[in-house]
Design goal:
This is AB hydrolase-1 domain-containing protein. The chain is mostly helical. The protein has 9 helices and 3 strands.
């Protein structure tokens, strides 16, 4: 969702944005007849419905999709849950459903050509939340972009390959200035 928000801000306030770093991002979260870089819409709608029955289990399933089996074995998922989710953090079903509605309905594909700022796209080649095809699509549409596909990574390469990730961003920022 973060990349969608960043892209939207770049479109709304282009004069304030000097560059974008898009991590595990997409311009459209769900598939369309002409776009296969997303999850099937029915899957996301099913996830939204399951929030009312069992929000905890739904979040656990979603979190497990964020990581490869190796990342889970290495404790990256646990590290994410401890470090990025505040203890006792609870989102209401309404907030979670609104987030899923945003993901279901947002489609920035036709607007990407308006984004002119330098963009760095970092994506895990085993991302199940935003498939690698989404990153390739972004790269093709954002004319001033670089794509770094990280092997063996899921949706959070900044955790699973932190040193490599940080070096990529550092080099890109150095080149930007």
């Amino acid at each position: 969702m973060g990349a969608l928000v960043a892209l939207e801000l770049a479109l709304l306030m282009p004069e304030k944005i000097k560059g974008l770093v898009l991590i595990g991002g997409t311009s459209r979260f769900t598939q369309a007849p002409d776009y296969h870089g997303g999850l099937p819409r029915v899957l996301v709608e099913r996830m939204k419905k399951s929030l009312t029955r069992n929000p905890g289990q739904t979040l656990e399933k979603f979190f497990s999709l964020m990581f490869t089996s190796q990342e889970r074995e290495e404790g990256i998922m646990e590290q994410f849950q401890k470090g990025y989710l505040s203890p006792g953090q609870n989102w209401s079903e309404k907030e979670l459903a609104a987030g899923l509605d945003f993901l279901i309905n947002q489609d920035l594909r036709e607007k990407l050509g308006k984004i002119k700022v330098p963009s760095l796209i970092i994506h895990g080649d085993r991302d199940e939340i935003c498939p690698p095809a989404a990153a390739c699509y972004l790269h093709a549409q954002l004319k001033n972009s670089q794509l770094q596909m990280l092997p063996g990574c899921g949706h959070v390469p900044f955790l699973s390959k932190a040193e490599v990730f940080n070096e990529i961003v550092r080099r890109w920022l150095d080149d930007l200035h």
